[in-house]
Amino acid sequence: MLKLKNVSKFYYSKGVIASGFSKVNLELDMGEFVVITGESGSGKSTLLNVLSGLDTYEEGEMYINGEETSHYNETDFEEYRRKYVGNIFQNFNLVNSYTVYQNVELALILNGENKKDVKGRILDIIQKVGLSDFVNTKCSKLSGGQKQRVAIARALAKETPIIVADEPTGNLDSKSAEEVVKLLSEISKDKLVIIVTHNLEQVEKYATRLIKMHDGKVLEDKILKKPEIEDKDESRTFADITVSNRFRLGRRNAFNIPAKFVLIFAVFLFISFAVAGTYSSFEKAAYEESIFGFSEFFNDTSDKRIVINKQDKSAITAEEFAKIEAIDNVSRIAKDDTLVDYTMPISDDEYWYYFYGNFTDVKELKDNLTAGRMPENSNEIVLEGSENDYYLSHDLEEIMKKNFYIENYDANGERDTSKPLKIVGVILREGNNGSDKFYVGEEILEQLRLDAAMSANNVKSLFEGQYYHSDASDPNFRITPNKNVPKGEAYVSGMLNDYTQSGRAVGKEIVISADSIYSHDSMTVKIAKTYNKSNLKNLTGVEFKESGEGAIYVNEEDYNNLINKGIFQSSVYVKDAKKLDSTLESLKEMGFNVLPMRDSLSKEGAELVQVISMMKTFMLAVLIVALFFISYFIIRIVLKSRNAYYTTLRTLGASRKISKQLLDIELFLIATIGYAVFMAVMCLVYTGVINQTFVVELANYLSVTSYIILYLIIIAMSYMISHRFSRKLFKDSVMNTYREEV
Ligand code: ADP
Ligand code: MG
Predict the structure, then answer these.
(1) Where are the beta strands (DSSP E) in 113-259?
(2) Quick one: residue 92, left, alpha or beta (phi over 0 = left, psi -120 to 50 = alpha)?
(3) For ligand 1, is residue 43 a contact (CB within 6 Å)?
(4) 663-674 pLDDT tens trace
């Protein structure tokens, strides 16, 4: 079975050569129960390790079943150990976190057996070594004698022809030792059992052969009994561990030591958050850079706002508005874009209180009122202002009693006090930024829209060969819509008689033109009537005021056709500014020109932002590298305790590749669980259960793609850690690793 011819083994350490044993000749056969004795340092263990293929030899020839082995490489010896040798060690080399059953099973599934096929066999063997009551007990809870019996069971389960045991009784009390030796001798009936001991008495009565060693040499080799050779030449086939068993073992290893699991899990959870945090900071920095700046043209420069108009500069139709509203990311449309940027002051009778802001439809009021109530009449408004506004926070009651007027001055420099506004509700906003907001009803908006349309249009009147601007100092030429004026006609002030040569304005024509960036139009109206102080009310329904004098009243429909022709420019507000690009795309496809507010912003100072963001990026990169190493070292410390486990795997016949795969799977599973918990936390953030600022910020800047990328990063990190660790662990031969352990 085994034959040594002048075999020598040397150790090289630190440049010194030491002899393990030298020129040993031996021939060992099936059925023998070989006992090797000798004082400490005589070379017993070395010989045993060479015989069992755990260690190499330097000189001579070793034959296994007649086959010479000097050409064997690491893999050949792996194969040999797996097929032929079962090892039993002084310190048991069991997996303490596994049960008795799992320890025995391990030897079998590592050799490609199926979980179901081996169950009966394992239970039989456990019974044979007398541990039936402990099948599901963790090995860490067993006594030394019991442990050694598990080790024997494990060696038996492999069904190898050779079993070697190095001081199997060294750590046992004499009673347990006796039992173990007896057990070993029983199994030697159909095997070759080689045991090393320095306690000859314990084994003498069972031994069939006695070998005494001294100083690396065989002193004595006595055959005590002739073995009853039962040469069963069943050649067993060995396969690699099945894929499903790889995952089973990987899973078992991931969870069977709770403290280890929790630690590695915590590391991966930490990595998930840290990498996600880093990633989202990148996104945030890039995003903030893109919106940095301020606009000289627009009052509302929210990054959620897109100004649109049509490429042919025609009015936007109701259907088109409906289509825009149907776009996913669109939250609302401010149809009258002019009003969005139409900022106006309002003040009370005595000009004591003064607020400056823009007018918004009260329907868009979403926040809760800080004080007061919602408007009920057309002249009631809700004021939104900063909580730091002194008057708002101190004089609120007073303010709500006052009349307010829009500071819309006419040509005479007077403001229109005919329509007093009441502030009935107030919203106090946090912080200082932004102008005030006035939430008003449709009626006021309508009036403002006219004003805005006027100021957006350049309206001129051609009268008697002379042009008059409607907003210029001559109040007689302000174009004003009126219901009482028939189409195509105009009622003008009697003052206009003086502008004609004949002294009579009635019957004359006025060509009114309105130019804006969207249209150039004109209409001709015939002066039908002139008015004065006494008949204005009669003609138009408008009260005569000194300051009101001088308007050209035209038919309302005519007016709308010329000046208020429809909505040419609107603002689309999106829900999520980060998805702005795709919304822009959709709008462009519908044929709109688009101007996102972020592009209207002045980029002055952008260079500074760039420098800051570069520094940020650099620091984040440093952080991520540091993170990897911190994680790696923590996990390495945790895994160090696993050295013994992986060494055991290899003495049981697992190759480097398989051992590494098991570690890969173990870390992969824990990393995935860590990531899953991270995802669960993020889900709670999205559903609003968690609203801690850090995680909410994080969630804001992560997209589905970034979650996938993140997961891949985590898995890559787990693989790298596994790779680094196993490279270190499996660099050495099994024996060297084992020695380090012991
Ligand atoms: P035993 O098992 O009989 O006590 P060993 O086989 O362990 O003896 O040791 C035999 C000889 O080899 C001793 O002189 C010992 O010092 C030496 N030796 C054993 N292992 C090593 C090693 N890893 N490196 C160097 N010398 C070793
Ligand atoms: Mg020894």
Answers:
(1) 162-166, 192-196, 209-214, 217-223
(2) left
(3) yes
(4) 999 999 999 999
Half-sphere exposure of 541 (CA within 13 A, CB side): 6
Burial 561-578 (b: 16+ CB within 10 A, else e): ebbbbebbbbbbbbeebe
Return the closest-CA partner of residue 415 out of 469, 330, 347.
347
**Measuring from atom 24 of ligand 1, which residue has the nearest CA?**
11
Distance CA 485, CA 508 (A): 16
Rg of the chain over all Cα atoms, to the nearest angstrom: 47
- Residue whose Cα lies nearest atom 16 of ligand 1: it is 41
> pLDDT at position 412, please?
57
Residues lying with their CB under 5 A of ligand 2, a single-atom ion: 45
Q: Atom 1, ligand 1: which residue's CA is nearest? A: 41
The 10s digit of each residue's pLDDT in 659-698 is 889 999 999 999 999 999 999 999 998 888 887 777 787 7
Return the ligand 1 atom nearest residue 18 CA. 26
**In the predicted model, is pLDDT for residue 307 greater than 80?**
yes
9 close to ligand 1 (CB < 6 Angstrom): no
- pTM exceeds 0.70, yes or no: no
Question: Cα of 41 to ligand 1 centre, how many Å?
Answer: 6
Q: What is the pLDDT of residues 235-261, one digit of tens each?
A: 566 788 899 999 999 999 999 889 899
Positive or negative torsion for Cα 551, 556, 561, 567: positive
Residue 742 Cβ contacting ligand 1 at under 6 Å: no
Please list the residues that pair with 28 across neighbouring strands: 2
Q: Which ligand is nearest to the CA of 168?
A: 2
Model confidence band, residue 294 (pLDDT cutoffs 50, 70, 90): very low
User: Measured from the CB, is residue 17 less than 6 Å from ligand 1?
Assistant: no
- Overall average pLDDT of the 21-25 stretch: 92
**Spatial separation of the C-alpha atoms in residues 674 and 721, rounded to whole Å:** 15
Cα–Cα distance list, 619 to 170, 276, 616, 625, 626 (Å)? 57, 15, 5, 10, 11
Q: What's the sign of the alpha-carbon dihedral 183, 185, 186, 187?
A: positive
Q: Where are the alpha helices (DSSP H) in 385-441?
A: 390-394, 396-401
Q: What is the pLDDT of residue 269?
A: 92
Distance 166 CA to ligand 1 centre (A): 13
Which amino acid type is present at position 39?
A: E
